[in-house]
Amino acid sequence: MNSSTDIRDKASLTGNEVRQLNFISDLPVCQLRKHYRQGLRSHIFEVLAVDDILKETKGEFINGTRWFPIAVPKHMLRILRTRFTTLDQVLAEVKKYALLLKFLGPDLIARSEEFIVEYTGTEKNQIVLCGLQEYVEGTILDPWGLFNQAPLDTFYQAGEASKKPERNRVSRALESIATFVRQTQKMITDAGYIPDLAGNGNLILTTGGGIKLVDINNIIRIDQNDTILLDDKSYPSCDKSVEVLAILEQKILKTESLPHNALYGHFLSAERKKRVRKLEEKFYQSFSASPAKANYPFNR
């Protein structure tokens, strides 16, 4: 890799490029593969066992039949694009993850081992924050794609929906989502922060029945005033995340007291939502207008 090219400026990296970085050990038992979800804040890679890759590409014989099982990641590697100038800035970022872990816990977020490295790929050594994150298997929960009266059924339709195992999974998911909403609201009230719930693919419904937040690197300050706060990428994440909470309560949990909730009343008023919509449009227009930004494998 060109020593003058900063990995944080590159739209994407290959697994081979990452293996050549000074802070990555060349372990023969693991292979890195670029994950299909690449965000604005991180390079994301699947950490795969070499044996699993061989089975995926060359197959294995089971009872006389060759199968090609898809390699399942052992972990996810994140390399943040954020430019830190001091160690204190990095530690403040790590504290945000600790805050998320405190309120939501390992059952509701993808657990991660955050680590700080010295990146030597440019003329001046840089501080880079990375994470070795739990791989969460499941289906993306799109809050804006919930249409029928029992939206969770569409996520757990393996055979007849009336089968007991399916009903149990839906029941567990409902309980998990209720806990997720309750703990997120507690985080808002007690700490004044909200995680980014609005990004594409940020919420996963797990195969066992449950919900997990997998984007743990965008935790936003929340203030109940007239100012619409934008995140570091100029997106109204705070307001859109509150909207997601309301959607989960309204369309999945069927919460009857929703109209009397002061949080939703403030952030989801017709006038404020109109202002938020304009900021959203401006955000997306900035990508279509900028060739440099358009080259990113963008997921919001």
Secondary structure elements and their pairing?
Layout: H1 15-19, E1 30-34, E2 42-49, H2 50-58, E3 60-62, E4 65-67, E5 75-80, H3 87-104, E6 112-119, E7 126-134, E8 138-140, H4 164-191, E9 193-195, E10 203-206, E11 211-213, E12 219-221, H5 237-253, H6 262-267, H7 270-289, H8 291-294
Antiparallel strand pairs: 1-2, 2-5, 3-4, 5-7, 6-7, 8-10, 9-12, 10-11
Helix pairs in contact: 3-4, 4-5
List the defining traits of the structure above:
single chain, 300 residues, alpha+beta, Phosphorylase Kinase, domain 1, 2 domains, 12 strands, globular, disordered C terminus
User: What's the total number of strands?
Assistant: 12
Net shape:
globular
Q: How far is the N terminus from the C terminus?
A: 28 Å
Q: Number of domains in the coordinates?
A: 2
Question: Helical amount among residues, as a percent range?
Answer: 25-40%
Averaged pLDDT: 87
Query: Tell me about the biggest sheet?
Result: 5 strands, antiparallel
Order of helices and strands: HEEHEEEHEEEHEEEEHHHH
Q: What structural class should be given to the helix and strand makeup?
A: alpha+beta
Kindly report the oligomeric state of this protein. Answer: single chain
The DSSP helix count reads 8
Q: What spatial order of strands do you see in the largest sheet?
A: 1-2-5-7-6
Low-confidence stretches: 158-162, 294-298
**Share in β-strands:** 15-25%
| Radius of gyration (Å) | 21 Å
